[in-house]
Amino acid sequence: MAKPPPFETPFDSYTSVSVIGEGGAGMVYEVRNVAGETFALKCLAPERVNADRLKRFKNEIAFCQRQDHPNIVKVLDTGAALLKGVKVPFYVMRRYTGTLRTHMPGLSPGDALKAFSQVLDGVEAAHLSNVWHRDVKPENVLWDQAGARLVLSDFGIAHFEVEEIYTAVETKVASRLANFLYSAPEQRVRGAKVDHRADIYSLGLLLNELFTGEVPQGAGFIRVAAVSPEYSYIDDLVDGMIQQDPQKRFQSIEDIKKELIGRKNAFVALQQYEATRKQVVPTAGALEFEPITLVGLDYSRGLLTLQLSRNVPSGWAQEFHNPRGGHSAIMGYGPEAFQVRGSTLTLNIRDDERLVQQVVDHAKNYVAAANRGYVQQQQELNARAEREQRLALERSVAEAELRKNILRNVKL
């Protein structure tokens, strides 16, 4: 294979070192930039460029550029190159150590479950952004040995929001077989509805493979209970993910996570789409608070009024009146003496210009302390709510397990 010319972007130039992989519509190269740094570069194959693939590739680049999730591949640079007389787009990403396929052998059951939770996080982040991958398999999960992190990649046939593409992916015979191996039943029927539940099916196959080394196909496949009895509950989880009928599967990644959390897997975390930051974050860490500031003051007939930048949220006044870590105050004019209403602080004070200035200076410190205390307060409340939720899920799972055992073992 002839070595491609350098891949140029407005900000750098990348020279091919070797071919890392070849997919249905493109190539992945190991490249070095002008500074000698090593990256991976993915481009469309010139002989396979068409309107559908260009659209998909454009969507893939846009999604991976705006995502900042630790378990989704990040596009670092992008451009277009002339290969075999055809202008083809490309993007640059980190060069990863390997894939989940290469990382999978030898994983302990505990590490297998932790690896699966990272894949879950990446797929869930995509789903929360209204994107479903539709090609989840070990080869499309990259492994970063240095950070012990798994990263979901290759959104080449993903569904992006309202776009629906059912065009078959042209691949070599072996690659096509690999794609079908992890495909949901509805993906094998042209014109069938394919949504986020196809990813759940693929994840179920992957989960069983992580423990047993076997991808379920039909009846009689190796069950987790046969190789790791202490993780036998995984079998029920797999069964609920690989149902033929999408309606009978787990309906969301969150449902799968709740089942895992209920089994006391502390490393599994729920996530949410934080619209203000337009990114996926852990539910317990989703607090974003813009500090409140003093923006004005008024004084009339012994009443000092301080104007805040906005109405204070519930719980902020408590932190203002009782600053964490202690505070200094003028006798009779401490934070507890202020009234907090909406976006104002008011305080009765004698007519003394020097005293008023001192009180205002102290009030600035009380506001800053209230901001810090409010953030801590909300983090504590979030953590408590998460603990309570985990305990509730653990009780729910234990009750369901007890009921299942009774119904299975008690006979009329």
How does this structure look, described?
- The protein is of the alpha+beta class and 412 residues long.
- The protein folds into three domains: 88 residues, Phosphorylase Kinase, domain 1 (2-Layer Sandwich); 187 residues, Orthogonal Bundle (Transferase(Phosphotransferase), domain 1), CATH 1.10.510.10; 94 residues, no CATH class.
- Helix content is 37%, strand content 21%.
- The protein has ten helices and 17 strands.
- It has a six-stranded antiparallel β-sheet with strand order 1-2-3-4-6-5, with helices on one face. Strands 14-15-17-16 form a four-stranded antiparallel β-sheet, covered by helices on one side. A three-stranded antiparallel β-sheet has the order 7-9-10.
- Helix 5 packs antiparallel against helix 7 and helix 8 crosses helix 10.
- The longest helix has 57 residues.
- The termini are far apart.
- The relative contact order is 0.08.
- About 4% of the residues have low confidence.
Itemize the secondary structure elements and their pairings:
Blueprint: E1 7-8, E2 13-22, E3 26-33, E4 38-44, H1 51-66, E5 77-83, E6 86-94, E7 98-99, H2 100-103, H3 109-128, E8 131-132, E9 141-144, E10 149-152, E11 159-160, H4 173-181, H5 196-212, H6 224-227, H7 233-241, H8 253-262, E12 271-274, E13 279-282, E14 294-300, E15 303-308, H9 316-321, E16 339-341, E17 344-348, H10 353-409
Antiparallel strand pairs: 1-2, 2-3, 3-4, 4-6, 5-6, 7-9, 8-11, 9-10, 12-13, 14-15, 15-17, 16-17
Helix pairs in contact: 3-5, 5-7, 8-10
